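Q: I'm writing up a methods section and want to include an example of the input and output format. Could you take the sequence below and give the corresponding predicted structure tokens, formatted cleanly so I can copy it straight into the document?
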Amino acid sequence: MEQNSFWEVAFDNLSQGIYILDHAGNYIYCNRAFLDMVEADREDILQLNTFQLVPEGQVSKSVGASALEQKQQLTIINTVVTPKGLRYRQLATATPIFDNMGDVVYVLVETTRLEEMTRRYQTALLVEDSSCVDLYTGASVTPAPAEVVAESPAMRTLLALAGHLAQVDATVLLTGETGAGKEVLAQYLHSHSPRSNRELVEINCAALPENLLEAELFGYERGAFTGALNTGRPGLVERADGGTLFLDEINSLPLALQGKLLRLLESRRSKRLGAVTEQTLDFRLLCATNQDLKALVDAGRFRADLYYRLSVVPLNLPPLRERREDIIPLALRFLEQFGQKYGRTKVFTQGVFDQLLAYDWPGNVRELRNVVERLVITSSAGTVEIYQAPDNLISGGSLTPAAVGELPLSGEWPVSMEDAEFSLSAYLEQCERAVLAQALRRFGSTYRAAKYLGVNQSTVARKKQKYGL
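A: Here is the clean output for your methods example:
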């Protein structure tokens, strides 16, 4: 391989973007990573001049121009706008190369997108603790779609079923605790369905009073009631024609409207308030509830015929505490989102992950999202690494003897030294079992029990299985 060809291949295999300027600021070389970053062809890049980038609005500041003017190595963070309109922030380092007379003949510029740099930094921190990485890398399994975090076996199974259901028009009832992610799953079902090119119309049945809810759902004609618009108004079911209608918290739907909704589902015909004629509609219905609809039916608060009509295919989202493999990937997803939103580059250290994993998340994914946003906002703007979350931010996330008190041991030990067949190993095992049982009863999860006992969670889980606890 020729020498020039060797260096070109080597540079094209770098993950960093590289380009070289001559003494006048003209681009004379760029590698493949740089072309991918700016979404441009090599021929177009080699026609650029670094002194023209700022006036033309392509960068907020030109590191190459500054390095040529100041004749020294510089590192800056600037904003790039690509020819296709993509905007991103990058870390750029320009290194002047001098001739024997001390004049700058070339400038070597290295560029890395900030979000990519943050991702690598975060990955490097995680690799330092392989047990943490194992929680969300797992074995060789089919990756989850980019828009849904599903590293836990429960979520992967659920998502596989959702992928099949997305292709048919059957009504799906999404169940699960508040904040578990039912809205995200509804969006997934719509976006992967044949109706994805039409609108997903969402309404929260608990957000509006009964009289407004009926008008919002079914629409109204001019003069249908006091305060109605003179032009009338189409309902959400009309907007969903050809697409998907998502009724969140359908458990809050008043009984009177439940009957009207049942008729709509059976006839696929709707009539606005005050209207004489009906219109035929074609839509797919998705519903979500955070309460047990069967229990509401038994209590007389939900129509049994509507319940059976809605629960054709129920999908239950497990709470976050039952799919802990998703906690770290979700936290990283939210960290990236809020880092971009607030223009801050942040990474979590192992201490934060320990806190996140030790907490039971009664508010589920929504609570985790809020915690990550507050961590990004409240951390020092000049600090990249977030080492620990304040105790008042994650309830129960910091477990120490001083905070929770000593672990009391009650009852008699099951093995006595007076026994004729006393065994030290059996005695120690019984002691270990008793301590482990009380720790699990007090803290409710293997993660929090392990935090208190000062051992790995895997150790607690293994011994819990060993002793049948």
